[in-house]
Amino acid sequence: MKKILIIEDQEPIVTLLKAILGADGGYELLVARDGGEAQALAKTERPELIIVGTLAHAEDSYGVCRCLRANGEAIPCKIIMIGNWTDETSGQKAIEAGADEFVDRPWPALLMRTVKAVLLPQGQEYPQPVPSSPAGTASLARL
Asked: Residue 109 burial by CB count (10 A; 0-12/13-18/19+): exposed, middle or buried?
């Protein structure tokens, strides 16, 4: 079973993410509420994917993503950032911070397709096209 680490400090969002990802049944879901907890869980649990949400407290999501990538040897996995940003450059900022993909809200169906595509073995393509978010998400064509 593939492990997914969710980094999110807002309980309603955590609940929604668990419902979206748990419906598939093929993932072990881990939750961290901040960057420090995420670093520790990522090193010990070795998830295949990390989903970074919009953190409301003390640290920003981009900074958490940068820290995870700075420890790339210790934490070698894919990262998807999800957000509710109105800034049209948010997707580009997420990629520059080290995310593999960015999914803007509303995101339940798009997030699930993106998770499945990101976790495919290298060289295998996702059978359905994944629509881009208006905020400028990265294209899954490069996977």
From this structure: exposed
Token pair listed for 109: 């169906």
In degrees and rounded to multiples of 5, residue 31 shows phi and psi of -130, 135
pTM summary value? 0.75
- Measured CA to CA, the distance from residue 103 to residue 134 in angstroms comes to 10
d(CA 133, CA 117): 16
Chain CA centroid to CA 61, Å: 11
Q: Strand locations in 27-130, DSSP E? A: 27-32, 49-52, 78-83, 101-104
Which residues have a Cβ under 8 Å from the Cβ of 118 and sit 6 or more positions away?
Answer: 49, 78, 80, 100, 101, 140, 143
Mean confidence (pLDDT) of the chain: 79
Nearest alpha-carbon partner for 43 in 74, 3, 69:
74
What are the chain's domains? 2-142 (3.40.50.2300)
- 1-15 pLDDT per residue, tens: 899 999 998 898 899
